[in-house]
């Protein structure tokens, strides 16, 4: 059956022959089901429909279900509903090195549109962390299909559950000297033409938003300018906030410090907009270059940040080369450049949390700023707590361009 699907296709365009659609899969449950699914594709689509209103979650769930379903058809030649525990162990090994690469991995690790013939379900081998995340999502899929009466059992429920130590935070964290390198590179960007000024303004604002706001890259793409609002504290001082709809559809209030608001006004003026956003303004938090006001995708925002880090890394390497430094000192330049190249947007969130904690900001306030716990803002007592959080964040967590 390995030739049944020579080129993997996205599940929305996938059509399966009767022997692979799972209508009589060996793990199908007898009796009535709670979903109107006659075959595996419909069952997976029913599972995905539950999270259709959360773009980030939907895309992650679809990616993992799609990868497994395509692998099952091509490699062992089975429908999803016939997979065994042993099959899933083989699949997890496959994630570490999807072969043959020509069939499974996009050329050069590039992301292509789902309708593009060059689209592939992988961009390269998955890290151990990504492998674990994939299996967690698939376990949720199988558990739901069992609860829905579609499958008789969950083949992943037999897996040994091991407690794993969290990776040290330092692996996804920029020390302050590296953070200074990133800011210095952004400030070195050319600003002679209109387009160059737009690129500089966007890079500066995006870093400010990710760092001072501690936002996730997905939150930058899905929230809007109208989510900024102001209110007066008990002393009559006007304070600005950003009402963020974040992970798990949870809302949190992020202190929009005076420094963050200055950068917001600077960016909006560069775009020809009024300095302050209006209530319910639908403009995105970060604009494309040019006249478009369409929100940037998470992938586009990620690419911008990676480009900034790559530019900063190149600047560090060039400085080391110009100094003609060799040996241990030269290796230090290379190590710093390599660290910057590994960094991603989420590193800024970890860096923000670490730098806030290093600045002796109360850890409970750091937790609330990053949305690690839900906020209740209705009582006067918690309102006073929020004012303290705003004041101390403003004092101790700064961009210092």
Automatic annotation (TrEMBL):
Residues 38-146 form the Core-binding (CB) domain. The keyword Ion transport does not apply. One of its GO terms (cellular component) is cytoplasm. Pfam families: Phage_integrase (PF00589). It comes from the Bacteria. InterPro entries: CB, DNA_brk_join_enz, Integrase-like_cat_sf, Integrase_catalytic, Integrase_recombinase_N, Tyrosine_recombinase_XerCD. Gene3D superfamilies: 1.10.150.130, Intergrase catalytic core. Residues 169-395 form the Tyr recombinase domain. It is found in: Cytoplasm. One of its GO terms (biological process) is DNA integration. GO terms for molecular function: DNA binding. Keywords: Cell cycle, Cell division, Chromosome partition, Cytoplasm, DNA integration, DNA recombination, DNA-binding. PANTHER family: PHAGE INTEGRASE-RELATED (PTHR30349), TYROSINE RECOMBINASE XERC (PTHR30349:SF77). This is Site-specific recombinase XerD.
């Amino acid at each position: 059956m390995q030739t049944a699907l020579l080129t993997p296709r996205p599940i929305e365009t996938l059509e399966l022959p009767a022997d692979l659609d799972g209508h009589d899969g060996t793990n199908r449950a007898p009796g009535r089901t709670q979903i109107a699914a006659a075959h595996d594709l419909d069952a997976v689509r029913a599972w995905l429909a539950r999270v259709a209103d959360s773009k980030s979650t939907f895309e992650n769930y679809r990616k993992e279900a799609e990868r497994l379903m395509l692998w099952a058809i091509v490699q062992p030649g089975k429908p999803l509903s016939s997979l065994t525990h042993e099959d899933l162990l083989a699949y997890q090994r496959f994630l570490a090195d999807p072969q043959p690469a020509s069939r499974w991995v996009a050329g050069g690790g590039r992301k292509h549109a789902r309708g593009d013939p060059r689209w592939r379900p992988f961009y390269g081998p998955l890290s151990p962390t990504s492998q674990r995340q994939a299996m967690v999502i698939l376990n949720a899929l199988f558990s739901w299909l069992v609860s829905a009466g579609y499958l008789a059992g969950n083949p992943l429920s037999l897996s040994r559950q091991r407690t794993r130590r969290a990776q040290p935070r330092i692996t996804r964290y920029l020390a302050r000297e590296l953070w200074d390198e990133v800011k210095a590179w952004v400030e070195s960007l050319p600003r002679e033409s209109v387009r160059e000024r737009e690129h500089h303004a966007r890079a500066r604002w995006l870093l400010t938003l990710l760092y001072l706001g501690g936002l996730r890259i997905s939150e930058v793409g899905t929230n809007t300018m109208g989510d900024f609002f102001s209110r007066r504290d008990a002393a009559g001082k006007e304070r600005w906030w950003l009402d963020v709809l974040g992970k798990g559809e949870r809302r949190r209030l992020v202190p929009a410090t005076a420094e963050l608001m200055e950068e917001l006004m600077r960016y909006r003026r560069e775009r020809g907009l009024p300095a302050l956003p209006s209530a319910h303004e639908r403009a995105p938090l970060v604009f494309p270059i040019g006249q478009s006001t369409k929100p940037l995708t998470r992938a586009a925002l990620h690419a911008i940040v990676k480009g900034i880090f790559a530019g900063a890394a190149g600047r560090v390497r060039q400085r080391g080369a110009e100094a003609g430094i060799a040996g241990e000192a030269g290796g230090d330049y290379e190590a710093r450049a390599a660290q910057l190249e590994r960094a991603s947007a989420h590193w800024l969130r970890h860096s923000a949390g670490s730098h806030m904690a290093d600045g002796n900001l109360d850890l409970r306030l750091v937790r609330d700023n990053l949305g690690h716990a839900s906020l209740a803002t209705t009582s006067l007592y918690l309102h006073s707590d929020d004012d303290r959080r705003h004041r101390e964040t403003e004092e101790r967590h700064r961009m210092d361009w």
